[in-house]
Amino acid sequence: MIVILPSIKDIIINEVFTKDLRTKINHLSVEVIKEYPITGIGFGMQIYGNESLINLEKCNIQLTEEFWLKNSLFLTHNTMLDITVRIVIVGLFLYLYILLTAFL
Predict the structure, then answer these.
(1) Using CA atoms, how far apart are residues 36 and 90, in angstroms rounded to an integer?
(2) For burial by CB atoms within 10 Å, which of 43, 50, 61, 86 has the most?
């Protein structure tokens, strides 16, 4: 842990978080969840790129400029965040409930 801590401190001080693509994707995903809180965006790989189904530009503008995602296609790299974007918080709780019952 002592070896890892200085590198984490350097990352925070050098503002690497704003330059990292995954951080930008996570911020945009949270904005998409805020934009579609009841229905989510649904399943399918083509939904993210389809401008008639999801307005990524509107969600992107709500972020600060340092977190803007320049291309219109993004895919979340986190399973829990991806489930939340697609089927909202209720779907995430159902998914976690299924996982919990499988282990108990």
Answers:
(1) 13
(2) 86
Closest CA to 43 of 92, 72, 97, 85: 85
Q: Please, is 30 exposed, middle or buried when counting C-beta atoms within 10 Å of its C-beta (0-12, 13-18, 19+)?
A: middle
Instruction: Give this prediction's pTM.
Output: 0.69
10 by Cβ neighbours in 10 Å (0-12 / 13-18 / 19+) ranks as exposed
Residue that wins the pLDDT comparison between 75 and 73: 75
Question: Using an 8 Å Cβ cutoff, are 40 and 85 in contact?
Answer: yes
**Paired tokens of 101:** 């019952």
**For helices 21-35 and 79-103, what crossing angle results, to 10°?**
80
Please tell me the total number of residues recorded for the chain in this structure: 104
Helix, strand and coil in the chain, % to nearest 5: 60, 0, 40
Which residues have C-beta within 8 Å of that of residue 51, sequence separation ≥ 6? 57, 72
Chain-centroid distance, C-alpha 84: 9
